[in-house]
Design a protein that fits this description.
- With 290 residues, this protein is mainly alpha-helical.
- 68% of the residues lie in helices and 5% in strands.
- The strands form two sheets. It has a two-stranded antiparallel ribbon with strand order 1-2. Strands 3-4 form a two-stranded antiparallel sheet.
- The longest helix has 33 residues.
Length: 290
């Protein structure tokens, strides 16, 4: 296999991760909808994106403060508890609250004791699907679209202007927090031993990284479109949701054409793709999304 062909393998793997997240999120949405679990009481409220962004800002500020104070135990503990709560919230749609505690605690223990890249990737697909489904059924398409537009702008500012998202990503990598997809460049790679500074442009790293948020945020619109819009479709996926899925993948591929030697803001590319694909799907289905 040529060098250029080998270089494309991580891109294909990350694209497959995105697809797996969206397909799994669609598969579990009926159970979550039937359980009545919602993040927001009124899915149509345009204040929902504001609440979501405030939560993101508070979460980011806390992690950055802990990184600055060099209190890694605060970061890892807070992340594990937050993710465990997300896992538990999804699992109670499928089993009793008491039974849901068992896999939740098991996942927490595995993430804490053995954060290798393949464990984190498998875990990341499940968590992204669950969180995407929960937020997707908690917002109709208008609030979801507002959320995606705001987060695309925020991501661009935080990566290219303030660069605080880069500092956060470095902290997450170096404490082995399960907030990233990790795709190794070689079979000898170990995420547990990785220590890099992604803020240094062109530094050779042992793996490609993709934030879980880059998979979660576009999928929120996919789920929202599929459950809230009365549109024709196939295999349980309506045309607006299907268009949003295709738009996500095209946006991701366009993101991958940018320079991989320095950090890139993913959401401007991904959210643009998913929104355009969603609107084209709405046009094809003959539905008005607002």
């Amino acid at each position: 296999m040529s060098e250029s062909s080998r270089a494309q393998i991580p891109v294909i793997v990350m694209l497959l991760f995105m697809m797996a997240v969206q397909i799994l999120a669609l598969a579990i949405t009926p159970a979550i909808t039937a359980s009545g679990n919602r993040v927001f009481e009124d899915p149509t409220s345009t204040s929902n994106p504001i609440i979501y962004v405030i939560i993101i800002l508070a979460f980011t500020a806390l992690l950055l403060l802990a990184i600055r104070l060099k209190q890694s135990w605060i970061i890892s503990g807070f992340i594990l508890v937050s993710i465990a709560a997300s896992i538990y919230y999804v699992l109670v749609a499928f089993m009793s609250p008491l039974m849901a505690l068992v896999p939740t605690l098991a996942v927490m223990a595995l993430m804490r004791c053995y954060p290798e890249w393949y464990v984190i990737d498998a875990f990341g697909i499940l968590v992204c699907a669950g969180i995407s489904s929960l937020f997707g059924v908690s917002m109709t398409t208008l609030p979801a679209l507002i959320l995606l537009l705001v987060l695309a702008v925020y991501d661009a500012i935080s990566v290219y202007k303030t660069r605080h998202m880069i500092s956060l990503a470095e902290g997450v990598i170096n404490i082995k927090a399960p907030l990233l997809f990790v795709v190794p460049r070689s079979s000898e790679y170990s995420f547990r031993k990785e220590h890099v500074s992604i803020s240094k442009d062109g530094e050779k790293r042992g793996a490609y990284f993709l934030g879980l948020g880059d998979a979660i945020v576009p999928t929120i619109l996919v789920i929202s479109a599929n459950w809230s819009l009365p549109a024709p479709g196939y295999f349980g996926i309506n045309l607006p949701a299907f268009g949003a899925m295709l738009g996500t993948y095209l946006g991701f591929l366009f993101l991958m054409t940018t320079s991989r030697g320095k950090p890139q803001a993913g959401l401007p590319f991904l959210n643009s793709g998913v929104i355009l694909g969603f609107l084209m799907g709405c046009a094809a289905a003959g539905v008005w999304p607002f």
